[in-house]
Amino acid sequence: MLDFHRADLARLAARDRLRGLAPQRGRDFASNDYLGLASHPRLAAAIADAVAEGIPVGSGGSRLLRGNHPEHEALEAEAAAFFGAEASLYFSSGYTANATLLATLPQRGDLIVHDALVHASMHEGMKLSRAASVAAAHNDPAAFEDAIRAWRAQGGKGTVWIAVESLYSMDGDTAPLAELMAVAERHDAMLIVDEAHATGVFGERGQGLATPGERVVTLHTCGKALGCEGALVAGPAIVRDYLVNRGRGFIFSTAPSPLMARGVREALRILAEEPERRTALHRRIALASERLAPHGALANGTPIMPLILHDNGRTMRAAEALQARGFDIRGIRPPTVPVGAARLRLSITLNVGEADILALDQALHEVLA
Ligand SMILES: Cc1ncc(COP(=O)(O)O)c(C=O)c1O
């Protein structure tokens, strides 16, 4: 039994691609808890208050059945206002939200043009979608436009859906959203923007990088800078209504915990009320850029700084050597990144101080020598 699976794992091991689960250990250069909100006392207090008020741990069912709780609805109303959208919808994870968006909104006869580097969850949705899909070269608006023109020239008549991330999770660069929006306007297309890593980090209130509008749908994961769990889709009211009626990942799934919804509500308040966290994060990013770029880390003014070492084995050995020195730094290998592009993903958060960044600079001198 399970011979295929044993052999498959052996093949992964032979290519230095076998994974295992490792505990958190050492200084945090690995998480997406960019603002350190996961352990913020205000979040813990908000959830403790909700427990004391008798808000249940579990939702008890799908939102369409008995699982709909006033906490979900309150969160969605506040999130719509926060992100400047007409409406929003809370999902239990960003993965489910992305997969549901891409599987549900584009219809048969439509075209999805996606950036070559979008997250696996968008690919999942595209596999389920009845629309055709095509990749465009990373962050190249002209490539998006060419793909749309080629499809129209071949008789494509439906709606075009452009799907991108605003801040790329493994490369740390940001999308040319204004140019992509101009492409969307020229071709009467919709723009789906995964703001997973930009939410909380960019924007006046931490709302992300996209500009809301009638042709824009954004996805804000709550497990990264918001320090919680789940994801909010924000956009036109019709998108929310459609997902509630047709989004299988929303309909056929137990609603997230109402306690977590309360936590996300508090996280949005913290973003608005404590802008100094964002300022501190950007100061730390500036220091990290100055100290880590000379080692080859790519610095784009964002908290994600990949240090590409190419070879899987070398990457994992470097990660282990840094872990042994007390840094929680993880190697990222294919298929998460393209073959030959294995990397250390250095993530800058408020969970580390300036001294930790200086210590990492020193450790990289030793490990990469
Ligand atoms: C760009 C991007 N989108 C979506 C997700 C999925 O979000 P979640 O972790 O909430 O499932 C992730 C990472 O986890 C991500 O990096």
Automatic annotation (TrEMBL):
<keyword id="KW-0663">Pyridoxal phosphate</keyword>
<dbReference type="InterPro" id="IPR004839">
    <property type="entry name" value="Aminotransferase_I/II_large"/>
</dbReference>
<dbReference type="InterPro" id="IPR050087">
    <property type="entry name" value="AON_synthase_class-II"/>
</dbReference>
<dbReference type="InterPro" id="IPR015424">
    <property type="entry name" value="PyrdxlP-dep_Trfase"/>
</dbReference>
<dbReference type="GO" id="GO:0030170">
    <property type="term" value="F:pyridoxal phosphate binding"/>
</dbReference>
<dbReference type="GO" id="GO:0009102">
    <property type="term" value="P:biotin biosynthetic process"/>
</dbReference>
<keyword id="KW-0808">Transferase</keyword>
<dbReference type="Pfam" id="PF00155">
    <property type="entry name" value="Aminotran_1_2"/>
</dbReference>
<dbReference type="GO" id="GO:0008710">
    <property type="term" value="F:8-amino-7-oxononanoate synthase activity"/>
</dbReference>
<dbReference type="InterPro" id="IPR015422">
    <property type="entry name" value="PyrdxlP-dep_Trfase_small"/>
</dbReference>
<protein>
    <submittedName>
        <fullName>8-amino-7-oxononanoate synthase</fullName>
    </submittedName>
</protein>
<dbReference type="InterPro" id="IPR015421">
    <property type="entry name" value="PyrdxlP-dep_Trfase_major"/>
</dbReference>
<feature type="domain" description="Aminotransferase class I/classII large">
    <location>
        <begin position="28"/>
        <end position="357"/>
    </location>
</feature>
